[in-house]
Amino acid sequence: MIDIRQLRYFVAVAETLHFGRAAERLHVTQPPLSRQVAALEQELGVRLIERHSRRAVLTPAGARFLEDARQIIAALDRACRDARAWQSGDLGELTIGFMMHAAYSSVPLLTRRFATAHPDVTLHLRETLPMMLADGVMEGRFDAAIGFDPGTRRGLATSPLYREPLAAVVPSDHHLASASALTPDQLAGERFILSPADVTPTLRRAILGWLAAPPAILLETQLQQTIVSLVGEGLGVAIVPESLRRLAMTSVRFVPLIDAPMVEQLLMVRPDARNPALTHLRAIADSLQPA
Amino acid sequence: MIDIRQLRYFVAVAETLHFGRAAERLHVTQPPLSRQVAALEQELGVRLIERHSRRAVLTPAGARFLEDARQIIAALDRACRDARAWQSGDLGELTIGFMMHAAYSSVPLLTRRFATAHPDVTLHLRETLPMMLADGVMEGRFDAAIGFDPGTRRGLATSPLYREPLAAVVPSDHHLASASALTPDQLAGERFILSPADVTPTLRRAILGWLAAPPAILLETQLQQTIVSLVGEGLGVAIVPESLRRLAMTSVRFVPLIDAPMVEQLLMVRPDARNPALTHLRAIADSLQPA
DNA sequence: CCAATTTACGGCCCTCGTAAGCATT
DNA sequence: AATGCTTACGAGGGCCGTAAATTGG
């Protein structure tokens, strides 16, 4: 069977057109070189080199095969390098799922840092409903996920990624719109827009805990962006992560909360994950550690 | 050193995800297979396959390396096939030099037939002054050349390719323009345009042989097309191969000659030429043999 | 006669296959 | 207990290197 070594030997002879020099370059003696090249020609059934007494000449088929052999050798070397790079995590792909409003906070931070440090790792970013994040990681659709604590963390390893206060969001013509900071009492009696309990349990618990009395719930919707948009339409008020301010909607005002509860986005990873680039991602996440 | 066989073994395991089945497919027993894959991983320094009791799983690096390994194996197989095809002349390149006015006669005939019969051989056509053809072949710039007998055929093998009569070409307003056929006497006294003796000795000999008396030579130029063009400009008359008629110039008329001398285009090849596609070219040339 | 490659031959390493070991389900 | 991969070990083959033969200028 044809062997990479035979290709390397042939290339050396084809490049020097001299069996002696080629053998020297390969750190072998001439006889094995002659035999291997002859064996290669035999297996191919093609004469690659014409041997004359004082010189060797490539046949047309040999010239063509030289090109191919060079490319094959280069491809093999490259494949070996890539495999090592992949193993080290310097080369590869990472698929990251994240809840959509993380696009306004942790995702740009994390991906910018990561892409700069590891330019040869391709990032696949997948916006996802928060409830799908943990399952996506567990089932291997994502290498990592960014979201709030899913509560039922079935064996997921997590790193804190981004910590921020909650803030009230009210229509810009609301009577509280220009308040400097709000207490739970001031929001009593308002109609609230929330995301469902099964979608963001941690966030919802933080909101309801800060509000002493259970609020009147007008409606529920899954995405924080949608909540802010509905507030802008005058349908009610809401408490959302402060980073949603970056939506820059003119129809709403963000108002800080007195003793605002903090919410934390986590990077979720399977502890047995095999993608080496993940270690780099976790290192970056740890370096972003909120104070 | 990494070996093609190791790549083949690895691909088999990666595709079956089962060392036993892979060994069966490769017609070897498991132990060598395990060892070779382990050796490959060892040499790469990369874990490619995670062995679990009941199943094997590719690591990300392994998945990537599988793609590369497949491509390398395919490239090698293709290179072997190409080398054999090249040797047989079914694949390759042919560089053919030809005197320029052969573009109106033998070249289209020959190249059309050849390209149809051997579509994987790339033809490089090089228009050349007739005097450069034989040298070009001898010095290896052309695999073959098409032209008149160069006289001094220093070891060139030739095949007759295209045989045609000479014809007179006169300005369309010339008093002989509508003659049905001409004798040497009728052209006596005309001023002739010829190609130089060192450029087309055979052609010139045929012309001077047919004209009983030496003509008055107005001027000489190398290309037959130029000769026809100058005749069209009213500078004189000429005798050229009949196929030049295909120039379709309205300012000249071609008039047959009584007992017209025939000239023959030859395919010239070095007898020791190494390009296998040449045998196909010569076979086509022989099948075009003028009657 | 010299340069360069191929052929001859002995020693060694490497690989294969059989058989035993080991781990996981 | 059974499946499936790895390790152990002896036999065989292939490859390397030294040395001799061959080919061509």
Q: Could you characterize the architecture of this molecule?
A:
2 copies of one chain form a homodimer. With 291 residues, chain A is of the alpha/beta class. Chain A folds into 3 domains: 4-88, Winged helix-like DNA-binding domain superfamily/Winged helix DNA-binding domain (Arc Repressor Mutant, subunit A, Orthogonal Bundle); 92-161 and 264-287, D-Maltodextrin-Binding Protein, domain 2, CATH 3.40.190; 162-263, D-Maltodextrin-Binding Protein, domain 2 (3-Layer(aba) Sandwich). Helices cover 40% and strands 23% of the residues of chain A. The first copy, chain A, contains 10 helices and 11 strands. In chain A, the strands form 3 sheets. In chain A, strands 3, 4, 5, 6, 9, 10 and 11 form a 7-stranded mixed β-sheet that branches. A two-stranded antiparallel sheet of chain A has the order 1-2. In chain A, strands 7-8 form a two-stranded parallel ribbon. In chain A, helix 1 crosses helix 2, helix 1 (4-16) crosses helix 3 (30-44) and helix 1 (4-16) packs across helix 4. Chain A is rod-shaped. The two termini of chain A are 62 Å apart. The relative contact order of chain A is 0.14. At the A-B interface, helix 1 and helix 4 of A face helix 1 and helix 4 of B. The structure holds a DNA duplex (25 and 25 nucleotides). Chains A, B: Keywords: DNA-binding, Transcription, Transcription regulation. Chains A, B: This is HTH lysR-type domain-containing protein. Chains A, B: One of its GO terms (molecular function) is DNA-binding transcription factor activity. Chains A, B: Pfam families: HTH_1, LysR_substrate.
